[in-house]
Amino acid sequence: SIPLSFFAGIGGASRRGILVKGANILENLSKVKTVLFDKTGTLTLGVFEVTAMHDKEDHDNNDEEEKARLLEIAAIAECASSHPISKSLQRAYNRPIDHSRVSDIKEIGGQGITAVVDGQKVAVGNEKLMEQMGVQYCHCHTAGTIVHVAVEGKYAGHVVLGDVVKQHAAEAVKALGAVGVARTVVLTGDADAVARQTAETLGVGEVYTELLPNEKVEKVEAIISETKNGKVAFIGDGINDAPVLSRADIGIAMGGVGSDAAIEAADVVLMDDDPRKIAKAMRISNKCMNIVW
Ligand code: ADP
Ligand code: MG
């Protein structure tokens, strides 16, 4: 039978906006020694600022009309996506979208979107997508997440999105050390430079970048098999990482921004996306285990 204190623990957690899906999960939370983070939407706001729009030669494009056209194409192509990049493009565009202008939308996890906009074939995404489409893109060194745009197989330019670290993310990482977490890792589909900078800012020890969704799963499996002590938790927003949430010993989903699939796949759901809740959940679990044993 399940000890009474587990019900108290699960109840106490839920009052703090932490949904723990069962007594065994509450027990496992106290054994977590390794925490893997998704980046966009989890450690960073996933609400980007459009910092610049460049033309093909990577010069600041001062032709306002062409800039506006680039943003419009990207926003229209992305109109059906729930990815944080899409949301920030919609926000930057800030106009209602006529859905009859777009068709054949295909979202490619970890890469971007292809669609037909105003009768033209459009690709919006990262370098991998451009390579896949055989598009010559600019290898720009601007700080931030670069969203490339190609029209009819020709490079049209890019939008630079500045990823913003969540207010309490550094505190959240530090709090994990205090509850006995020995290893922290960022797993991300984003570019190396921007991800390393985020990890360094937050004091996360390891970073694996430019991972496709299936490569994230493989990385999690490798980390689980090399971990001798304790459980491995993964925390993500569920956009492109629902399979990882179910593969980890404990999958923790950000409930506020996460998809239904993520909430389903997760063992723990944080209702308000505050990453400090991870350590909080572990503290509740520890307390509970002390009462039981
Ligand atoms: P993370 O692992 O940081 O949460 P994702 O796996 O969701 O990131 O995406 C990885 C990368 O793939 C993004 O940084 C972006 O370059 C590209 N990408 C994914 N989805 C989209 C999209 N809808 N539009 C544009 N780019 C995208
Ligand atoms: Mg993400």
UniProtKB/TrEMBL annotation:
It comes from the Bacteria. It is found in: Cell membrane; Membrane. Belongs to the cation transport ATPase (P-type) (TC 3.A.3) family. Type IB subfamily. This is P-type Zn(2+) transporter. The lineage of its organism: Bacteria, Pseudomonadati, Bacteroidota, Bacteroidia, Bacteroidales. The chain holds residues 299 to 591 of 642 of the full protein.
